[in-house]
Amino acid sequence: MTLDRRGFLVLASTGLLLGVAGKGLSTAPEPDGLVQRFLAIDWEGTVTVFAKHLDMGQGIWSGLASIVAEELDADWGRVRVVGAPARLPDYAHNAFHEQTTGGSTSTAQSWDELRRAGATARAMLVRAAAQAWHVPEAAVGTRRGELFTDNHTAGYGDFAAAAARLPVPADVTLKSRAEWRLLGGALPRTDTAAKTRGATVYGIDGMWPDMRHAIIARCPQIGGKVRSYDASAARAMPGVDMVVEVPSGIAVIARTTWHAIRAREALRIEWDTHAAETRSDTEIAADFTRAMAETAPAYTDTRGAPEAAFACAHRVVEAEFRFPYLAHASMEPLSISGRMVGGVCEVRAGFQSQTRNQQAIADILGLPLDRVALDTVPAGGSFGRRASFDSDWVAEFAHVLKATRWRWPIKLTRTREDDVTGGYYRPLMIHAMRAGLDREGRLIALDQRMSGQSVTLKAPEKPNWRDWTVMEGVFHELYACSNSRLRWWGPPARVPVLTFRSISNNHTGIAKEIFVDRLARAAGADPVAYRLALLGEEPRQVAVLRLAAEKAGWNTPPRPGITRGVAVHRSEGSFIAQVAELSGAHDDFCIERIVTALDCGLALNPDTVRAQVEGGTGFGLSAGLYGRVTLEGGAAQDGNFDMYRVLRLNEMPRVMETHLIEGADRPSGVGEPGSVPGTAAVVNALERMGLPQVTQFPVFAMSRI
Amino acid sequence: MQNMAVMTRACVDRPRAAQQDRRLMAFTVLINGQPRVLDCEPDMPLLWGLRDLLGLTGTKYSCGKGLCGACTVHLDGAAVRSCSVPVSEVKGAITTIEGIAGPVAERVLAAWDAHQVAQCGYCQPGQVMAAIALIAAGPVDDAALEATMNGNLCRCATYMRIRAAVRDAAQTFAQTVSA
Predict the structure, then answer these.
(1) What percent of chain A clears pLDDT 90, i.e. is strictly above it?
(2) Under 8 Å between Cβ of A644 and A635
């Protein structure tokens, strides 16, 4: 597992080992610390963890480090985390086989390898100390970054270099859970202090001497290209160094971001829109709805005999939901900086798909992969945007670097308007649902239709392929109904679409949970009891739903003026139920409390888990209540936060309580599940307060500010 | 020291830029207690002077229109959106996240740490600057907290903890003042 010298130098050349490797890198034949795939320990005892996943706010850098630190018996106060370089197979995702972050899988798929990494390094330190002290290894103990016997004490740094010269043990013993000191406890994140004090360097903060700032003018109509342009006025603007054409538009290179933004306004560009989207999002939605009536579905799954069951139904309930395009709109607009130095392209950003990002740059610049060094820094949010399968925002930067002949280091920034109007949205999706109930109100038939684009952006691998990026989380699959049919249509649109926090669950889960609530109302049943009856095959959903109901006092009436709504879901391997309590009227309400029960298996850091539930709930509410990208003539109209509305502090629930169930002995997803059920729970309460049945999202247009 | 536009020093190290724009001037602004010279046009927003000219990147760009609060700095102790203040109109001392100090700042930072507020963290310097100015200005009730902190967006929606941290910091500061 130890790196060979070349690997060590690669790490060093990417800047990873700054302050770790010590002096004389190029001449010293031996490192003066221990450097392995996932960690380094320097002579001072500082532990550096190499995180192969991107921290975009979910706390994964701390989480990964805590797994290493636990088995290493490290002093948490002396653990720091940096992004691992882009390199396969060392830093491949164990399920996706490339270096990437997504699906709330990072903790779960790193769990085994990072425990082993920490334990291996610890075993090597112990052996090195035992040899030096002439005692058996069993006599050497470890605690908080120290090695000790009855007669000795030393820091890890004292034996790091000696440990590095030892063979890597083939097998190591992992701690039992009773021996854990860090995991499961209240461990502060490693990045809190720096982020709070403005010291964290994000992609947008990259800086090198003589760096220039780039801004790109892109076609407002999504998919349009440059036909011709006149940059004479822009070139004459103050602070402008260069104007170049790149595939996505015209790039202005200037002294500061502001100079570039200002000069961009002086560009005169004629756009070629023959391949661009021309429709409004309303027209696209109508076309998607029409496709369900007029074309064959791309996917059909049928259980039992739904039509025969509908014929026997005492009552049929129908619903249609239209989910809009959504921009991720992370607080750090997409940005990336880089330079060419010594034949190596160094780039810095919050890279979420390092393997693809590195390949894209290498292809554009004509470089071998090992000459493209990615410095993955924390991202100021992503919510799926940085995971684009075609590396659009990274490729664009490589084109700018190429077009300027890498004369300067360059930082490419998107303005907020560029970020929101640039496409790569959560897909617009139509859900049409029909349920047949028997005389007692029980569900006996279901027909679920969906129409909208898939984020996989490619033809199905085989006919009737179940595209999980579209269908994960649907009613048809999560509630028991023996006569049920699911169909999906994927009609064409030229709006690029992309993963968005919780992928398809952010529409399938909401449609499911609002619809099931309406079925409960139609049946005159308690919404918790009605769901429980449909969750026979889902014991962990049953458990969280029961716990949330219990903790919210579901079986006792709420305070006067309070209306409750409930929702339950499973996604990313975890199970979550939420009860929302609302006061006021359906058009002027306050979310007084949200009680959550979450089963994410083993919660490594319960406080981080709660933070993800809280923040995820706010993120989901923002999308469901207020979020929409409006297209007119194929161009997004919502440039900034005045038009693209996102949740503010006063719209957050007054109180949130999160209760954890440990339903498994391994961790499962935490970053995404919290963003799904909140909207449904709130809408279910609002509809009980008299809100006309919701048919489209967001529930509220701009007016409710 | 207040906003001295020192015309004679303009453009000494940027002759090419000077040829391009005669309006390029050197503005001396007191930033974090130090006089700093910004060579720029009068209408350049303070945000870009801080970030791109001085390298004070703790002040964040996110909307550029005074809608999100990520670029909040203090002008003589009051919170202002640096994206919406031209360099030439800075009449007072600027404090950025890199330069905050004093009992209110200490309590706000301690509360932010204790509540583990930050997720992606990008908006947090602006949140902290808004909170410091709010608490320093006087007693904070929930209405004042919402009125002020509503101006600072957080896409990670860390609002529960922002609320808690502001309340905490305000309370501990009030206690020390009254003690």
Answers:
(1) 90
(2) no
Output the pLDDT for position B9.
33
* A197 in B contact zone (CB under 8 Å): yes
Q: Cβ separation of B160 and A195 shorter than 8 Å?
A: no
Do B51 and B72 reside in the same domain of the chain?
A: yes
A372 beta partners: A345
In this structure, are strands A429-437 and A315-323 parallel, antiparallel, or unpaired?
A: antiparallel
CATH fold group of domain A209-274+329-421 = Aldehyde Oxidoreductase; domain 4 (3.30.365)
pLDDT means over runs of 10, chain A (705 residues): 36 37 42 91 97 95 97 98 95 90 88 96 98 98 98 97 96 96 95 98 94 98 97 97 98 98 98 97 98 97 98 98 98 97 96 96 98 97 95 97 98 98 97 98 98 81 87 97 97 96 98 98 98 95 98 97 98 97 96 98 96 98 97 95 96 98 94 97 98 96 50
The domains of chain A are located at 5-181, 209-274+329-421, 281-325+425-688
Task: Indicate whether B92 and B106 sit together in one domain.
Answer: no
Q: What is the CATH number of the domain that holds B23?
A: 3.10.20.30
Among chain B residues, CA nearest to A414: B62
CA A482-A488-A494 angle, 5° bins: 165
Within this chain, domains A209-274+329-421 and A281-325+425-688 share the same CATH topology: yes
A281-325+425-688 maps to CATH 3.30.70.1130 = no
pLDDT at B176 (0 to 100): 85
Q: Within 13 A of A28's CA, how many CA atoms are on the CB side?
A: 13
Distance from the A550 Cα atom to the nearest Cα atom in chain B, whole angstroms: 23
Residues of B in contact with A647 (CB under 8 A): 157, 159
A606 neighbourhood in chain B, CB within 8 Å: none
Q: Please give the Cα distance from A114 to A174 (Å, whole number).
A: 11
Task: Note the CATH number of domain A5-181.
Answer: 3.30.365.10
Whether B140 and chain A come into contact, CB under 8 Å, resolves to no
pLDDT tens digits, A91-112: 999 888 899 998 888 888 899 9
Say if B107 is an interface residue toward chain A (CB within 8 Å).
no
Chain A residues whose CB is inside 8 A of the B128 CB are 196-197
Name the burial class of residue A290, with classes exposed (0-12), middle (13-18) and buried (19+) by CB atoms within 10 angstroms of its CB: middle
* Residue found by looking up tokens 């959550």 in the block: A596
Contact A549, A555 (CB under 8 A): yes
Q: Does A500 touch chain B (CB under 8 A)?
A: no
Q: Which residue out of B38, B119, B127, B166 would a mutagenesis test of the A interface target, given it has the greatest number of A Cβ atoms within 10 Å?
A: B119
Question: At B114, which CATH number?
Answer: 1.10.150.120
Which tens digit of pLDDT belongs to each residue from A647-659?
999 999 999 999 9
A408 touching B (Cβ < 8 Å): no
- For A315-373, what is each residue's pLDDT tens digit? 999 999 999 999 999 999 999 999 999 999 999 999 999 999 999 999 999 999 999 99
Q: Is A58 on the interface with B (CB under 8 A)?
A: yes
Q: Using a CB-CB distance cutoff of 8 angstroms, which residues of chain A are in contact with residue B44?
A: 256, 258
All residues of chain A having their beta carbon less than 8 Å from the beta carbon of residue B156 are 57, 331, 381, 615, 618-619
Measure in Å the smallest separation between the Cα of B175 and chain A Cα atoms.
Answer: 24
Q: Tell me the residue range of the domain where B122 lies.
A: 100-178
Residue B57: list chain A partners with CB under 8 A: 198, 201, 204-205, 207
Tokens of A681: 């729970």
